Amino acid sequence: MNAVLVLKLTLVPLLIYLITLAGRRWGPQVAGWLSAFPIVAGPILLTLSLEQGAAFAARAAEGTLLAVLAILVFSLAYAWASSRCGMAGSMALALLAWAGSVAVLQSAHWPLGLAFVLVWCALLLTFKLFPSATPDAAGKPRNDLPWRMLAAAVLVLSVTAGATHLGARLSGFFAMFPVMSTVLVGFAHLGAGRGSAVALLRGMVVGYFGFAVFCVTLAMQLREEAVGSAFALALGCALIVHVAARRLLAKPALPAPVAPQVKA
């Protein structure tokens, strides 16, 4: 069992657990925003750089940057499909849209700077294309954490088995397979309704601004700097943008309606 697989099998279910608890404490938008930070793709790219070399990881980071476009297609497809379909139908359509986007993006060979600008433009456009949906009132937390973690592990095994013997570029795309999106959004839809699933997806879009900065910084720095300093700089830049995007773009929670006072 290689290091990447071990990392995914231990890290992703743990993150699913922690982000689920955060979502129950602070809401689905915060959970989505947290899940978009490169806490999964980052360690995977680090492992690739140690196993395959910095040049391989730099090319993989370029593929991961472009994969953000496919994730945005996944998010929009799910958000719109969920207005007519249940969780299973919406997820099937979203995953098909993701696969089609990856197939198209595989033939795209844009300069790194152009790819970064296109990703940011797509992120801004996604906000305008998102359907409106109000998160449902929080009910009693479901005892589904073990199932979420198991689903994450099964998805990781499936994706890793399908991604064997891939080149650097396609490895980057599969580092961005929507494992966390699939698990978090699917269980949110089942447990709290469509509004919570859409709010979680919207929170993820906010987080992808920092993720894109991480990918472009890493792709540039791995060609010039040591692996450790390249990852440290990329994570530092991503964290700054991640927090700034949350402050600037995340919608504030709607205040609870105040009951009219009746005079005696």
From TrEMBL:
Keywords: Membrane, Transmembrane, Transmembrane helix. It comes from the Bacteria. The chain crosses the membrane at residues 6-23, 30-50, 56-80, 87-106, 112-130, 150-168, 174-192, 199-220, 226-245. This is DUF4401 domain-containing protein. The lineage of its organism: Bacteria, Pseudomonadati, Pseudomonadota, Betaproteobacteria, Burkholderiales.
